[in-house]
Write a structure and sequence with these properties.
Helix content is 44%, strand content 22%. It contains 17 helices and 21 strands. Helix 1 packs across helix 3 and helix 7 packs parallel to helix 9. The longest helix has 68 residues. The structure holds ligand C2E and calcium ion (2 copies).
């Protein structure tokens, strides 16, 4: 028991530790997942803001393209250059506007008329609208040199985008990239922002991704062929809220611990004896077996019945004594199911024996809560009918301690007796009730507890009580069964009584399997018949005398086919009483 408890405690502790660890990890990852979602949402907002700025820029360039391409002023004339300059002054994001033709730049608002046309080279991308995009173009107007810009050209006009077009767009730890694309051609090119590791082509296939320790989010403009990509490195994301991660880890740890404890509790319940027993009863499991202990008439040695006793092995194959599992079933409230199991199996097991021997009584132990249980009454009726026996062959044993509520118990006993069942008071003498109290219950018999049987032949203080109980019970007309008869001396003491006693105990037989009981009963009957016939031989010739105990005992102990729980089976087979006791 101690070992089971220690193992269970260790299991609970291990489960609690594991639960806390996995819970904390789970909470930690949940915290991170929440931070990721928050970061993703923030990146989306930033990408939308970028798109709004790029839409404004696109609108601006488009209106310049429309206006300047439609201009009737001679290109690169002073008036034309003045007009181009006027456009630039109105724009925040455009650095220069030029007049182009066949891939060459002839003049611009800032450069004026070029002495030699400038070759624009091959566009990086041709947009769906037909406009050309040139990226990383060395800017001629940058006096210091070294600057690159993005140029967009439509018709015979190009505009140089201000490399600081999104300069005021600055978020801590967030990088961005604006790309222009031609979906039909599957081409993409970066037009602003930093060159991100994920590459511009990614925008055509994905919306969001974690790539090499950075989270990326893309949103495309609804009206222009431009997408904004925003990015944040994961370490920056985690750093943004360490407290969130700690809080979620702690919550996860707590949840894991609680979960583990609930699981332990369920496991404890599931593996507990009560749960196992209930399952065994409901599944009609072979781990539950009935054995039968014969009850004999002390005077005649005749087997007059047997008590059904339940045996159970738990899932480890360990035998659990009924003194342990019956109270569990009572406490857990399913003793009625145990009783139903016993009634069903016992009446089936012994049906034939009881049909053949109509005076044979099957004793079944019932619990206090079985009393007045209509289901038991119905089941007994059905089983008695099925077995083809009469109700008087069933004795219900009720312990003395279950008889506290006199009125209720008396009524319940009365109902059972009306149908014809016998009712016996078990373990009599060790409880509080007196014989006069028991008499009011109008039961058929009392079973005197083995504690009193043990006092026979001893000088124990309570030794005289047994004979007093026998005396009084007999005067009340109650049948008497003496339990726990283990020795020949005890049997002889009882046999010397002038009262009609019954007895049960190892001296006569250990509890037997149903098959062994049948054999026991038939041999007992044969012995009884032979005694009867010998007694009819008058005057008794030597061969008619009853067989001597010692010879019969030796014969019976040789029988290996008598199966029993353990210890001797013998007594009753050979307990040929002395004529004086008959
Ligand atoms: P009980 O009804 O008083 O059953 C008699 C007990 O005494 C049995 O123990 C039996 O094996 C034991 N016994 C019989 N002869 C001797 C003997 O000569 N010496 C000694 N020392 N013991 C003897 P068991 O089978 O362990 O049952 C213990 C108790 O468990 C029973 O006491 C009964 O109260 C309860 N029980 C057993 N089976 C059932 C059952 O099917 N239903 C209910 N409700 N209770 C049961
Ligand atoms: Ca009993
Ligand atoms: Ca008893």
């Amino acid at each position: 028991m101690m070992r089971i408890w220690t193992n269970a405690r260790l299991r609970i502790i291990a489960l609690a530790i594991l639960g806390s660890i996995f819970g904390s990890l789970g909470g930690f990852w949940l915290g991170r997942a929440i931070l990721l979602r928050t970061a993703n949402a923030a990146l989306s907002v930033y990408a939308q803001e970028l798109n709004r700025s790029s839409d404004i820029l696109s609108e601006e360039t488009n209106s310049i393209f429309v206006k300047m391409n439609a201009s009737t002023i001679p290109v690169c004339s002073n008036q034309d250059l003045a007009e181009l300059q006027a456009q630039i002054f109105r724009s925040v994001h455009i650095k220069d506007i030029g007049r182009t033709h066949d891939g060459k730049l002839y003049c611009s608002a800032i450069l004026g008329r070029l002495a030699h046309p400038y070759f624009e080279g091959k566009p990086s991308l041709v947009l769906d609208s037909g406009a050309n995009v040139y990226t990383h173009v060395p800017v001629l107007i940058d006096a210091k040199g070294g600057g690159n810009a993005t140029i967009v050209e439509a018709g015979d006009v190009d505009v140089v985008l201000n490399s600081n077009a999104f300069g005021d767009w600055d978020r801590p730890n967030i990088d961005y990239m604006l790309v222009a694309f031609n979906r039909e051609l599957g081409q993409v090119t970066q037009i602003a922002g930093s060159t991100l590791e994920i590459g511009p082509a990614w925008v055509l296939s994905q919306d969001s991704q974690i790539f090499r320790g950075t989270i990326y989010r893309k949103i495309c403009s609804a009206s222009h062929s431009v997408c904004a990509v925003t990015a944040e490195r994961l370490p920056d994301v985690w750093r943004s809220s360490i407290s969130t991660q700690i809080a979620y880890s702690a919550m996860g740890g707590f949840a894991g611990l609680s979960f583990a404890l609930v699981l332990s509790l369920l496991y404890w319940r599931a593996s507990g004896l009560g749960y196992q027993l209930l399952r065994a009863v409901r599944k009609n499991s072979s781990s539950l077996q009935l054995v039968y202990q014969p009850i004999l008439d002390v005077g005649t040695g005749r087997c007059i019945g047997a008590e059904a006793l339940l045996r159970w092995k738990d899932h480890n194959g360990a035998s659990i004594p009924p003194d342990v599992f019956i109270p569990i079933a009572e406490e857990r409230g399913f003793i009625n199911e145990v009783t139903a199991f016993v009634v069903r199996h016992a009446t089936n097991d012994l049906a034939q024996l009881m049909r053949n021997s109509e005076s044979f009584t099957l004793s079944i132990n019932i619990a206090a809560s079985d009393l007045g249980d209509e289901r038991l009454v119905e089941q007994l009726r059905d089983q008695v009918h099925l077995a083809g026996i009469h109700p008087g062959q069933i004795a219900l044993e009720l312990t003395e301690r279950s008889t506290a509520d006199l009125t209720f118990v008396r009524d319940a006993i009365q109902r059972l007796k009306t149908v014809g069942y016998k009712v016996h008071i078990d373990d009599f003498g060790i409880g509080f009730s007196s014989l006069s109290y028991i008499d009011q219950l109008s039961v058929n018999a009392i079973k005197i507890d083995q504690a009193f049987t043990r006092t026979i032949g001893t000088d124990a203080m309570i030794a005289p009580i047994l004979s007093q109980m026998v005396e009084m019970a007999s005067s009340l007309g109650l049948e008497i069964v003496v339990e726990g008869v283990e020795t020949e001396a005890q049997r002889n003491y009882l046999a010397a009584s002038d009262k009609n006693l019954r007895a049960q105990g190892w001296y006569y037989s250990r509890p037997l399997t149903a098959e062994a009981l049948r054999l026991f009963e038939s041999q007992n009957k044969a012995t009884q018949d032979s005694v009867m016939s010998q007694n009819e031989c008058k005057p008794a010739p030597p061969e008619c005398l009853p067989g001597l105990d010692s010879t019969s005992k030796a014969r019976a102990s040789d029988r290996s086919d008598v199966r029993h729980e353990s210890g001797p089976v013998i007594g009753a087979l050979t307990s040929t009483p002395s004529p004086a006791n008959l």
